[in-house]
Amino acid sequence: MKRVGLLDEIRGFAIICMVIYHVMFNLNSLYGVDVPFFFTDWFDIIRNIFAGAFIFISGCVCRFSRNNLKRGVQCFFLGMLITFIVAFVQPDFPVHFGILHLLGISMMIYALAEPFFDFLPPFIGIIIFGFLFFVLFNLPHTQNIGFEGVFEIPVHESLFKTNVLFPLGFRKASMGYGDYFPLLPWFCVFAAGCFFGVYAKDNRLPRGFYKTRVPFLAATGRYTIWIYMLHQPVAIAVLNLIFNDR
Questions:
Q1: I need a labelling partner for 111 at 20 to 30 A (CA). Which of 73, 83, 238, 244 fits?
Q2: b/e per residue, 91-118, with b = 16+ CB within 10 A?
Q3: DSSP state of 194
Q4: Interatomic CA distance for residues 72 and 109, integer angstroms
Q5: Which of 18, 16, 78, 22 has its CA nearest to residue 239?
Q6: Among the residues of the chain, which ranges form H helices?
Q7: In order along the chain (246 residues), what is the average pLDDT of each group of 10 residues?
């Protein structure tokens, strides 16, 4: 099936940004290097934009896959593998439900609920899940749903005291985390991508979307899962060589 060049390029750029983010995180948390802008609000916004683009495009490509259930199981397994590795390498920053866990579960949900995604008009689906994302965005951090400063509805605190609902976004305040992308709100971004993928698959996007302008980014975008799995061990090995030689 014909590839959508722009989506590959955006996903490639997003994974490169993610690698840079994790390298800076390692410098700060493991080697005590001060990265002045790393823990600022605007940097968190940039991180969420690129992570959101990666998740959105992952939803888009579900429309091109023949077996999303299998892909979801494989992706979730890789996420669990990272959980166990990080528990030994970086125990202070555990990955209980990272981006691969999110994508794996989201792919499985899509596979099981595909008739729903096919029934709802794509434009309506994008609007609904886009709205839900912004309504639920603050849930894991403030325990409220709604728009800050406009209307906020508190969620019952008992949901946040359990140890089993953190994949949904109901995380205990005492639970440490390094990479956390709960289903609420991030599945909404994935779902919106699934609906947008209808336009991509049916060649209903502008012609420019299907052209590849930066081959390196497009190629990177096709191998994001392997880059995500391997970049941290490589980055830590390189940083160990640099800082141990000092």
A1: 83
A2: eebbbbbbbbbbbbbbbbbbbeeeeebe
A3: H
A4: 9
A5: 22
A6: 5-29, 41-61, 68-89, 99-112, 114-119, 122-136, 139-142, 183-201, 215-222, 224-244
A7: 85 93 84 77 85 95 94 96 86 87 97 95 97 94 85 88 88 75 97 96 91 93 91 86 73
Residue 157 is predicted with a pLDDT of: 86
Q: Rounded to whole angstroms, how far apart are CA atoms 5 and 217?
A: 9
What is the secondary structure of 6-67 as a DSSP string?
A: HHHHHHHHHHHHHHHHHHHHHHHHTT----TTTTSHHHHHHHHHHHHHHHHHHHHHGGG-S-
Q: How far apart are CA 57 and CA 66, in angstroms?
A: 16
Residue 14 corresponds to which amino acid? A
Task: Provide the token pair at 50.
Answer: 């690129």
